[in-house]
TrEMBL record:
InterPro entries cross-referenced by the UniProt entry: FAD-bd, FAD/NAD-bd_sf, TetX_monooxygenase
Name of the molecule in the record: Flavin-dependent monooxygenase
UniProt binding sites for FAD: D45, R103, D293
Subunit field text: Monomer.
Known function: An FAD-requiring monooxygenase active on some tetracycline antibiotic derivatives, which leads to their inactivation. Hydroxylates carbon 11a of tetracycline and some analogs.
Catalytic activity as recorded in UniProt: a tetracycline + NADPH + O2 + H(+) = an 11a-hydroxytetracycline + NADP(+) + H2O
EC number: 1.14.13.-
Keywords, in A-Z order: Cytoplasm, FAD, Flavoprotein, Monooxygenase, NADP, Nucleotide-binding, Oxidoreductase
Membrane spanning residue stretches: none
Localization of this protein: Cytoplasm
Length: 371
């Protein structure tokens, strides 16, 4: 029985690894030409009960602990006028409940755990029919079970549901300060070792320390239209002018925060935030299923990667438990996944609503310190 996984992201690779551990072959088809063809984004906090559970099932938890950053759990929460609302510093002996890990390092860990032939690079999936995968280069491959692990804009999803991601009213500009400890030690000290959030009315700034010495800056603009990047008068083709325009959009904020924007390099990326409907389901099919963002795209508030990893691990375990009955394995997996990710989706939507509210700072403080 041939298992084809479309997409070499974290969820697809976790599935391939758990299958491999259980003696089941699968092929991962990835549109990128090589593992290093595209940047993989920033840091992830892997939760002990979900993302880390998946890595335990994959036999990779010790290797994960070797690359995880306990200090990445540090948090500083501020208001635009510079008021510090919350500072949490992680003790050196704190449990690894939600350590940060560089997404690229985690992906490489999963890739290195698979046989070299398990991932077929440069295979851009176009469509599937009658047990055949068709790729953009004209080639094809057979399958008995097709797993769509191809992210927010999944092509496999259309085989199961008409649902499409919808814009949330949030648009994010991503910037970067490389080697911050050397180039801007004062800003490095201000940000600390983990996550730094400044939450305002209608917009926010977050800074995230990465394992390679860079800090990624995310500027969020709430209650904005899907075409906001085109109408914002931010000249994205001129990084210096774009930074100047972004600083103007944060007029009235503490100068330390606009200094972060001024310190950034020429990385200026547009990130519209979209989600799938919370609680999305579909009638089970014996030969196709989905995992990760392809199945349950959520706001980027800490659940997505964890859910994708656990999806992959649990689907792999279900297939290993029913090696001669893929339809039963798919039904078992989907039943659990729908319930688990619906709960996670509701939680994520609640956090997203807090972040987009006029009093986001105070509400987030109450979220972290209930009662």
């Amino acid at each position: 029985m041939t298992i084809a996984i479309v997409g070499a992201g974290l969820g697809g690779l976790a599935l391939a690894r758990v299958l491999h551990v259980n003696g089941i072959d699968a092929v991962v088809y990835e549109r990128e030409p090589s593992r290093g063809a595209r940047g993989q984004g920033g840091m992830l906090d892997l939760h002990s009960g979900t993302g880390q559970r998946a890595l335990r099932e994959a036999g990779l938890i010790d290797q994960f602990h070797a690359i995880a950053r306990r200090e990445g759990q540090d948090l500083r929460l501020l208001e635009p006028d510079g008021t510090l609302l919350l500072q949490e510093d992680t003790p050196d002996d704190a449990p690894l409940e939600r350590p940060e890990v560089d997404r690229a390092d985690l992906r490489n860990l999963l890739l290195d755990s698979l046989p070299e032939h398990a991932v077929r690079w440069g295979h851009a999936f176009e469509h599937a029919d009658h047990g055949l995968l068709h790729f953009a280069d004209g080639s094809s491959a057979t399958y008995d079970l097709l797993v769509g692990a191809d992210g927010a804009n999944s092509r496999v999803r259309a085989l199961l549901t008409d649902a499409r991601p919808a814009h949330t009213g949030q648009n994010v500009v991503e910037l970067c300060i490389p080697d911050i400890d050397r180039t801007h030690p004062d800003l490095a000290t201000m940000i600390g070792r983990g996550n730094y959030w400044v939450l305002g009315d209608g917009q926010s700034l977050s800074a995230q320390r990465n394992g390679d010495g860079r800090v990624r800056i995310y500027l969020s603009f709430h209650h904005t239209a899907e075409d906001w990047f085109a109408t914002s008068r931010i000249p994205f083709d001129d990084p210096a002018a774009a930074r100047a325009r972004l600083i103007d959009l944060f007029t009235g904020w503490d100068p330390r925060f606009t200094a972060l924007i001024a310190a950034c390099d020429d990385t200026v990326l547009q990130r519209p935030i979209t989600t799938l409907p919370v609680g999305l389901t579909w009638p089970s099919r014996p030969d196709v299923t989905l995992l990760g963002d392809a199945a349950h795209l959520m706001p980027p508030v800490g659940q997505g990667a964890n859910m994708a990893l656990l999806d992959g691990a649990l689907l792999g375990l279900a297939l290993a438990a029913h090696p001669d009955d893929f339809p039963a394995a798919v039904k078992e997996y989907e039943r659990e996944m729908f319930e688990r990710t619906s709960t996670a989706g509701r939680q994520s939507a609640h956090v997203q609503e807090i972040l987009m509210s006029p009093d986001a700072g105070q509400r987030m403080l109450a979220f972290f310190q209930p009662g």
